[in-house]
## 1
Amino acid sequence: MTAGNLPGHQRGGAFDYFTTKKDEFVGWARKFSLFPYPFVTACCGMEFMSVSSTPYDTDRFGAALPRFTPRQSDLLMVVGTISHKQAPVLKRVYEQMCEPKWVMAFGACATSGGFYQNYAAVPGIDKIIPVDVYVPGCPPRPEMVIDGIMKLQDRIAAQRHPIINKDF
Amino acid sequence: MTAALFEQVAQELAPAGGAPEVAHGVLVLNIEPEAVATTAKALKERFGFDLFLDVTAVDWPERAPRFDVVYHFYSMRDHVRVRVKTRVPESDPVVDTLVPLYGSARYMERECHEMYGILFRGNDDLRPLLLYEGFVGHPLRKDYPKQQEQPLVPYRK
């Protein structure tokens, strides 16, 4: 018996089409294809490695394939302290990403500057670029990162995609 | 062995007034700013202190002269360290560079220059190293406001 002869798989059979809302379909497709750009600057990078590799495995959420060019990625993960000297680089990386794009502030330093309050550190990357999801912790537990990814997925899935919008 | 070497170094290099001491196993020489280059040259060429470990400064805001400039040298032959300290005033914080003796001094002097404002006469490359062009002031001086930022990217509203 070939695949084409399986019950329900014939042309005109039960699985020939499905119905959904366009917004839900686009959101469902997008939320499982997050291509992260890891902007790793500090010790949170260790925790990033932990959460992205086997025991925790962000690939379960479709967010494990890092693209090391911002032009191919849609999730900017800012992992670690951003210094004032580095801020122009971060802003340029963000501007190089194509729409749609999202930003995760990973850890206390990216969220708020953490315990740094001095001449060197930016007090939170949201002073420079817009942030969609904040993951606190120094460093955050992998469970918190996964929770942040899932919250971001919920947000992506709930976005509306009108056929005619202000740009088109 | 170490004690004998320290004795010899102190005898030859310590100025008449400044009593040399041994702190935590490190010989400490307090010298005048003008004597930095000659002291380092003698340490390197006559006593075998071939590794330049660090130069940094200490800010004493209440004191005159205000800054200590502190050097550390290491002898890979004898496995001992020497600390050389000198005092410079805020109005004229100048010492001679050690770049002709130790190439590694180039970067350490750059860092000390941007953080404390110490000028190293003869080092022709005192551009910011960890800081950036346009940064005003010297952040490790005690009178630099600890929360003052100088962002390069304008903050979002």
Note: Chain B has a mean pLDDT of 89.
## 2
Amino acid sequence: MSEIVIAGIGQTSVGEHWDISLRELAFHAVQAAMRDAEGLQPQALYVGNMLAPNLSRQAHLGVLLADFCGLKGIEAATLEAGGASGGAALRQGYLAVASGYVQTALVVGVEKFTDQIGSEIDSAMATITDSDFEAVQGLTPTAQAALLMRRYMHEFDVPNGGFSGFALNAHAHAVGNKSAMFQKLIKLETYQNADVVSDPLNIFDIAPFADGAAAVLITRTDLLPPNFPHPLVRIAGSASATDTLALHDRHDPLWFQSADLSAARALQQAGIQVHDLSLFEYYDAYSIYAALSLEACHLAERGQGWRFDLDASRMPCATMGGLKARGNPGGASGVYQAVEATLQLRGSAGVLQVSQAKYALIQCLGGPASTAVSHVLQRLN
Amino acid sequence: MKDKTERSSPTLLKPDFPVGIVGYGAYVPRYRLPAKEVARIWTGGVGGLPIKEKSVPGMDEDVVTMSIEAARNAMARARVDPTGIRAVWVGSESHPYAVKPTSTIVAEAIGAVPNTQAADWEFACKAGTEAMVAAVGLVGSRMGHYALAIGMDTAQGKPGDALEYTAAAGGAAYLLGPADESLAIIQSSYSYVTDTPDFWRREYQRYPEHGQRFTGEPAYFKHISEAGRAMMEANGTSASDYKWAVFHQPNIKFPQRVAAMLGFSKEQIEPGLLVPVIGNTYAGSAMIGLSAVLDIAEPGDRILMVSFGSGAGSDAFDLLVTAHIHERRTLAPSTRDYIARRTEIDYATYVRMRGVLATR
């Protein structure tokens, strides 16, 4: 039986690419993915992007990138689901190939933050909240995360500094990732002494917004060229789910229901249990979101997700640095996760290699899990 | 005609006729606003401070009066007849008039009129060193015997903006003339510019805007390090060949880091690093750093100065101190004398003095 696989991957480094435009950034990732896939030609291009119409005054990215990448004529469109845009584009690519209507789909996630500065970025980010009821009050995604974290600390008696494990783990892994924004270890004291951004979130609880593009080429095994050079990575499960858009509409704001639903559906489709996973790329735009994701995906007990100890024998997470240390390239994050998990499952993650990696769960969130997109990737023998 | 100088690089700026600094003078207004005062108003006192305190001009001071003070100090040290001056050039981003030169007023005040060039220069924080390079050209081509170049500012920082902590007032004046009359010879200079929109103020705008983190790597660090590196490469020198180094200083960290990038030690930049105690004097910043170094330099000391102006560019200068330094530097107040003359003010006094409170 033919399987749906990720045949090619590409990524740019994540950082402040002041001298590279949105289209060029995407092009670099696309070019790398197409080379990696031994020249497979896509019939469709799905773009994951969150803020280009706001920050770059550029919508219509499908045709922009198809044209710029020399793919004029193919189907192309943008998928937007806040921070889950990359995952939404990946799922669209998967659905297209799975449906049989498209043989090979190109998925590119791209975000360009540095076209704007300061309050322009905050204003743009606020558009992913409920504009009429949240943004209008001045709420930004960061303030929203701070409110959730304060509530969580109150409910579950978390001491100050309790979330340090996420940043320490992320930075430790980013040291081995040449595409990461911060390839530098941090000490516990650094975390403890960090400036507060939005109480109780300090600067190390928040992933830095950055420019970046990542791309994957999705196809069927029967379409691969002979002697395909990479170990095959199958998309074994794909699911997306929603919660309320506004945080205040939730009965239990400390439970990321869409994260739970989408992960459960993806795992079910893959036919595995959560403890069969070799690694989990969670969406750590804020440390509190990583903790809530671990709980929602049943990798930690309710109220215990924050106890993320660097030395404990737990599931490897943020294995290439996560959003915190690799950088948070907005709507590209979900595609970066796919690239990174593919590297792990191919056995090509170098010093960051998770041994015997067979199944990876990748999950990206839009807002406080207002949208969650989950994929299970599997190494085929 | 055969080139008389040995030109090690086609991009190095070096006159056929050697030029130097005949006299120099600094000026810093007496008022100081501690950075913690700004933090008290805007952040509740929370967060790091980029400097200790900044200088603030008095209510009757502007770039004209301050330039005259510095120019008089430069003339006192130079001890030359002001009618020999063929150019008075003032670089600033706070000229009091949009149309009408600062420089004619300064020229008149020091007795350099009427047989002189007079013009105001604009290149953000390197307007003053741009005037210096031009003055080297004027004297070095023997079009004129002396030329006066001034970098002076009463810099504007929007209330609450990061720049309000540092935007300060002060600067320095340099009378350039033949090398054999000089207390420091300008051995060569090198300029590095690109179109880089890191910081700007459009006409009729009261306060400048900036690109936040974009002002660092692609602007300040790139231009200063490229200019310094190219200058040293063309001269076949390295950091250890210089006794002192001065860099544009918008805050404490930037000049320290760019110095390290170019191989200079903390000791080499210490005498010229004035930003902790006077703030960022913009067009005056690197030039007043140099005046503080000349206040303590000894004959034979080699000095590297690199300015930075947003927009963006850097001028690098290679200077050699001569024996004339001893007899001249005591003829006017030193830079540190001005820094020591200090009256602390609070934020309320500051906004009144700077005209931030609009009363009509």
Note: The interface with chain A takes residues 46-48, 211-214, 217-218 of chain B (CB under 8 Å).
